[in-house]
């Protein structure tokens, strides 16, 4: 009876080894290297193309549903895609969005709110560029923050 249990453990270990090998083959880094691109660029392209099936799902199943379901869907999918792209650096975007919400909520539609928004977002973006600067182009959290800053300035 003990030999049967040992055989099961051996079979499970072999199966785990095969699965681990299979997942190592599916690495984004290896795929990006084989395509001649960086892993960050591949993640960005994948996340852009993930928007299409998500849009189809939204249109087919959530279009005329309650607004709280739509907001939950957009929040969950947006945060998931952002985490897929930027990992733990997502907190930069969350921090700026929460602070922007507070600025608009507390100051309202005033010139002071516009100036505060411009100064804070631009300073945060420039500080991000300064602290993450490297010799070559990297896709980091500063890219979506630049889009956010330009939209708020516009």
TrEMBL record:
One cellular component term from this protein's GO annotations in UniProt: endoplasmic reticulum
Compartments (UniProt record): Endoplasmic reticulum
Biological-process GO terms, alphabetical: lipid modification; phosphatidylcholine biosynthetic process
Residues in the signal sequence: none
Membrane-spanning intervals of the chain: 41-58, 67-84, 115-133
Annotated pathway: Phospholipid metabolism; Lipid metabolism; phospholipid metabolism
Phosphoprotein as UniProt keyword: no
Record keywords: Acyltransferase, Endoplasmic reticulum, Lipid metabolism, Membrane, Transferase, Transmembrane, Transmembrane helix
MF term (GO), any: lysophospholipid acyltransferase activity
Record PANTHER family: LYSOPHOSPHOLIPID ACYLTRANSFERASE 5, PORCUPINE
Family membership noted in the UniProt record: Belongs to the membrane-bound acyltransferase family.
UniProt name for this protein: Lysophosphatidylcholine acyltransferase 3
Organism: Neovison vison
């Amino acid at each position: 009876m003990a030999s049967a249990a040992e055989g099961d453990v051996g079979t499970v270990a072999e199966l785990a080894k095969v699965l681990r090998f299979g997942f190592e083959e599916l690495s984004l880094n290896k795929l990006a290297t084989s395509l001649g691109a960086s892993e960050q660029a591949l993640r960005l392209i994948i996340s852009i193309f993930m928007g299409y099936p998500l849009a189809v799902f939204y249109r087919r199943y959530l279009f005329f549903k309650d607004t709280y379901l739509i907001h939950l869907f957009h929040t969950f999918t947006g945060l998931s895609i952002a985490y897929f792209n930027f990992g733990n650096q997502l907190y930069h975007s969350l921090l700026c969005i929460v602070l922007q919400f507070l600025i608009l909520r507390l100051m309202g539609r005033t010139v002071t709110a516009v100036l505060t928004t411009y100064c804070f977002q631009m300073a945060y973006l420039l500080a991000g560029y300064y602290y993450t600067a490297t010799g070559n182009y990297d896709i980091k959290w500063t890219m979506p923050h630049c889009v956010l800053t330009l939209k708020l300035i516009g």
